[in-house]
């Protein structure tokens, strides 16, 4: 199956289709609001909108009734607001949330003990696929989206230790300070 290229657009009420890794997208009958159309994935209803488009290798739809754009992510439509997606403008990290927000590690923690897990918010609601880094590699390391101990801790490590966690993707980054 060939995925539709960036810049491909189809409109409700007009013939056309788009193809993504999920399958072929078309428009069906007009929705009851009188301005949007039922979106179909492989012939089955899957939301409604006025326009479907591929931008930055992502599928978007415009819901004309409320003026919002929706991004197709993880087999669901995610509201990404009223600003149209722009080709060539790659999504960037805008926030990092750590869980737990504050952690306590025993002074005998072995290396690679999970301290916290990061969740990175992207400017367009897409999944973060970039890299996390830490400014203090003596105490902290990164394993996927986990902040872990870089080495075994001892009682000599008691006290507060801080690092800056940075999420980078698309040539942009976002950082937060983290202490334990």
Describe the structure.
- The chain is mainly β.
- It folds into 2 domains: 9-81, Thrombin, subunit H (Beta Barrel), CATH 2.40.10; 93-179, Immunoglobulin-like (Sandwich), CATH 2.60.40.
- The chain has strands at 9-11, 18-20, 23-30, 37-41, 44-49, 51-55, 58-63, 68-73, 76-81, 93-99, 114-122, 131-134, 140-143, 146-149, 162-169, 172-179.
- The strands form 4 sheets. It has a 5-stranded antiparallel beta sheet, with no helix packed on it. A 4-stranded antiparallel beta sheet has the order 2-3-4-5, with no helix packed on it. Strands 10-11-14-13 form a 4-stranded antiparallel beta sheet, with no helix packed on it.
- The N and C termini lie far apart (49 Å).
What keyword list fits this structure?
mainly beta, 180 residues, four-stranded antiparallel β-sheet, five-stranded antiparallel β-sheet, Thrombin, subunit H, Immunoglobulin-like
Strand order of the largest sheet: 1-6-7-8-9
Quote the CATH topology of the largest domain.
Immunoglobulin-like
Give the C-alpha Rg: 22 Å
For the record, give the distance between the C-alpha atoms at the N and C termini, rounded to a whole number: 49 Å
User: Helix/strand/pairing class, anyone?
Assistant: mainly beta
Q: Biggest β-sheet: count, sense, barrel?
A: 5 strands, antiparallel
Give start-end ranges of low-pLDDT stretches: none
Encode the helix/strand succession as letters: EEEEEEEEEEEEEEEE
Instruction: Please bin the fraction of helical residues.
Output: under 10%
Average pLDDT over all residues: 91
CATH class of the largest domain: Mainly Beta
- What is the molecular shape? elongated
Instruction: Indicate the CATH architecture of the largest domain.
Output: Sandwich
Q: How many structural domains does the protein architecture include? A: 2
Total of helices? 0
* Beta-strand proportion: over 45%
């Amino acid at each position: 199956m060939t995925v539709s290229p960036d810049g491909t657009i189809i409109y409700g009420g007009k013939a056309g289709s788009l193809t993504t890794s999920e399958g072929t997208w078309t428009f069906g009958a007009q929705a009851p609001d009188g301005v949007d159309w039922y979106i179909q994935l492989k012939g089955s209803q899957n939301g409604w909108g006025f326009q479907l488009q591929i931008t930055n290798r992502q599928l978007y739809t415009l819901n004309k009734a409320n003026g919002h754009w929706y991004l197709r992510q993880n087999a669901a439509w995610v509201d990404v607001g009223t600003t149209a997606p722009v080709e060539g403008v790659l999504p960037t990290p805008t926030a990092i949330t750590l869980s737990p927000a504050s952690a306590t590690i025993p002074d005998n923690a072995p290396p690679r003990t999970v301290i916290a897990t990061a969740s990175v918010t992207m400017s367009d609601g897409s999944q973060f696929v970039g890299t996390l880094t830490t400014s203090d590699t003596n105490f902290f390391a990164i394993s996927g989206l986990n902040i872990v101990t870089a080495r075994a801790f001892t009682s000599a490590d008691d006290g507060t230790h801080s690092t800056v966690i940075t999420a980078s993707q698309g040539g942009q980054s976002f950082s937060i300070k983290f202490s334990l």
